[in-house]
Amino acid sequence: MNSGYAIPAVALVVVATVLVGAFGLRISRTTSDFYVASRTVGPRLNAAAISGEYLSAASFLGIAGLVLVQGPDMLWYPVGYTAGYLVLLLFVAAPLRRSGAYTLPDFAEARLASQGVRRLAGAFVVGVGWLYLLPQLQGAGLTLTVLSGAPDWLGGVIVAVVVTAIVAAGGMRSITFVQAFQFWLKLTALLVPALFLVLAWQGDGAPGRPFEEPATFREQRSVRVDDTLTLKLEEPLTVTVDGTVDGRTRDGARVALPAGSHRIEAGTRLTFDADTRVPAAGRGADDALSPSRAESRAERPLYATYGLILATFLGTMGLPHVVVRFYTSPTGVAARRTTVAVLGLIGAFYLLPPL
C-alpha cells in the first residue's frame, strides 16, 4: 500500500478513536462509571464492544493468514472461538453479573470465600492479559511497518499510548464506546473489499471455470525455497535453477525436470516461466506443512480436532478482558442477551476473513 495513503488512514483511525473515547469521558462522572460504566450498558452496545475487544489482530489478520498458509482445517479456530460464547452464555454471564463484583478476583473470592483463590485469580488475570496483549502490539507494529515502512516498534507504541490514555481518562465508559466503534470499523474494513470483489466478479460475467483450473504463474516468477521440500510434478517442467535440486547443484542453469517428485534444498531459487502450472510442494507426507503435523493427522486426527475445539471453548471463557464486560450489564438477563448478540456479531465477522 502506498504510504501516502497509509499514513493518513492510520492517523485518521487514531484521531477517530481518541474522539470517541473523549465522548465517553464527557459522560463519565463517578467511580462506578470508571470501573463498570455504572452497569448501564445495553445488550447491543455491549455486544459490539465485546466483539471489538475480542476480534483483535489475531482474528482480523491471523485467521486469514492461517487459512491461506495451512488450509481450511484452520477454520476450526474461529468455530471454537465463537462457540466458546455458548459456554459463557450458559455458565458465566448471568452469575458474574449478579455477583455485583468489580473484578474477576472479587468474583472468585465472593464465590469461594478464599483469599488464596483471589490471589490466584489475580495472577491468572495478569498473566492471561499479558500474553494476550503482546501479540496485539506485535500485530500493530507489523501492520504499520507493512503499510508505511515505519519501524516495527512504532505501531505498538502508538497503540499502547492511545489505549492507556483512553482508559486512564474515561475508564470503562470510554472503552465501551471505543471498542464498539472498533468492531464496526473492522467489519466495514472487511465488508467493503468483499463487496467490490463480488461486484468485479459479477461484472466479469460471474465466471466459475477459472476457479476449477489449476493455478498458473501469470508472468515469470522467481521463488526462493527457505526450507527443504519435495516438489511434485504431474508433467515435465523446465525451470531455471540456482541452487541444489535432487542432490545436484546448479548456478542459474535451465533444467528439465521429469514428472514425479524432486527434492529442493533450502536456499535454492527457482525461476518459473510465464503460464507455467504452479507445482505442488510439501515438506512431509500427504503434502503436510511439517512431519509432525502429518503424523498428527495420520495417527489421531479426531484427537487433534477435539483438543483444539475444547481449548478454544474454554479459552474464550478465560479471557479476563472479555468476561469483565458482563459487569457493565444492568441485569443478569441483559448479560445473557448480550452474549446472544455477540454470537451473531462474531459469527458474521468470521464469515469474512476466510474469503
Helix share, percent: 55-70%
Overall domain count: 2
Structural class: alpha+beta
Give the number of helices: 13
Record field, number of beta strands:
7
What does this structure look like?
The chain is α+β, with helices and mostly antiparallel strands. It folds into 2 domains: 3-204 and 293-350, no CATH class; 221-277, no CATH class. Helix content is 64%, strand content 11%. Strands 1-6-3-4 form a 4-stranded antiparallel β-sheet, with no helix packed on it. Strands 5-2-7 form a 3-stranded antiparallel β-sheet, with no helix packed on it. Strand 3 (237-245) and strand 4 form a beta hairpin. The longest helix is centred in the middle third of the chain and has 52 residues, at 152-203. The chain starts with a helix and ends in a 5-residue tail after the last helix. The relative contact order is 0.19.
TL;DR?
With 355 residues, the protein is α+β, with helices and mostly antiparallel strands. 64% of the residues lie in helices and 11% in strands.
Name a few traits of the molecule.
elongated; 355 residues; 13 helices; four-stranded antiparallel β-sheet; 2 domains; alpha+beta; three-stranded antiparallel β-sheet
Question: Could you outline the blueprint of secondary structure elements for this entry?
Answer:
Layout: H1 3-26, H2 31-36, H3 43-54, H4 57-70, H5 76-98, H6 104-112, H7 115-148, H8 152-203, H9 209-212, E1 221-224, E2 229-233, E3 237-245, E4 248-257, E5 260-264, E6 269-272, E7 280-282, H10 291-299, H11 301-317, H12 320-323, H13 332-350
Antiparallel strand pairs: 1-6, 2-5, 2-7, 3-4, 3-6
